[in-house]
């Protein structure tokens, strides 16, 4: 059972556990909505607007993070500093920083951010300046579903006088940004990209790829028996694959955060989530420890309304139970929020310590880390880690935004090195040759694994690759 790691450790009640797990799975924007809903529905709950630290409860100055929780006890320590930060601290800080020139004053606006801007902000650090214009061109030609017309790629190559292969490399980077699959040329291609990303963190039904590639027409009519015959399988296996596709894939990536897959996109501009975690350095000084801010969507303090608690003594007996229920619900929410924050702090401390080089240098330095391993390290259930990681995004020191789940991608470092090797090849290298070169880099992988990773990155086999001009 999930446990609260404080000075007195005791099992959580069923209600406490259930609500903590629910809150743990929410992004910062979803958490804000949940808190607003509770404040509107429960008169026993109130938000005190004074600025208090979410961790130590000290009253804060008008701006800036908590001077106690955001300051390391020992500046020489290599351990990252992890603390809960009110959302307003981050956004006011970002808008006044030197990065405003690069990202614009509205980059972290709490109002609206359209899809092209959101995706470009994620991939810009990985692109040359000239390629950013190409990426922006592609992104501004997305349809309402987040898909590209395949004819736009050769047209763009002619317009910019660059090889189609270069356009495809930029497209691949777009496809692997959030929402996964955006920039694909068809719903099927978008789902295949999503499958490639999922296969390292989930068991993919064997028929999923085949069904998406050339079986969707029959699948849409639920002709399981005919599909089973076509793929020499069983109707049950086809249904399992169909259920996986329905529950995990989205053929229309632009609708990931709003609307319904089966309905047209709304007329209003698309709203995207802000990062849930911010990683940087104290005062941008790279010699200082890393600072990890877990964004809390409120800057005030949630508490039980003292007037409500006092008034319950004078209320009619017929309403007393209802009022007690309101107080208990408010108390439970406050405790569960504290538990959520505590769990996120412990998780992020461990992840950032383990993945420090990947955060500072790049994906090729990613170390192997699984949810099961981290759960064992923190003495919690694996489902707790899964909920804490799900849907969360992290802003890295270079301002790139990545899914928190990417720190658990066991293949990411190998794929990054593989791409580097192929990018530097003087002649097309075979998969067998790439196996040997990866071994020299310290990665022991089989040839079929190289072929799989190459396919995931959209890289052609050696026979179909040509030397750069």
TrEMBL record:
GO BP field: DNA-templated transcription initiation
Keyword Glycoprotein: no
GO cellular component, one term: DNA-directed RNA polymerase complex
Membrane-spanning parts: none
UniProt keyword terms in alphabetical order: DNA-binding, DNA-directed RNA polymerase, Nucleotidyltransferase, Sigma factor, Transcription, Transcription regulation, Transferase
Pfam families given in the database record: Sigma54_AID (PF00309), Sigma54_CBD (PF04963), Sigma54_DBD (PF04552)
Occurrences of domain RNA polymerase sigma factor 54 DNA-binding (ranges): 322-463
GO molecular function: DNA binding; DNA-binding transcription activator activity; nucleotidyltransferase activity; sigma factor activity
Keyword Phosphoprotein: no
All copies of domain RNA polymerase sigma factor 54 core-binding, residue ranges: 109-286
Cross-referenced InterPro entries: RNA_pol_sigma_54, RNA_pol_sigma_54_core-bd, RNA_pol_sigma_54_DNA-bd, RpoN_core-bd_sf
Family of the protein in this entry: Belongs to the sigma-54 factor family.
Protein name in the entry: RNA polymerase sigma-54 factor
Protein source organism: Ornatilinea apprima
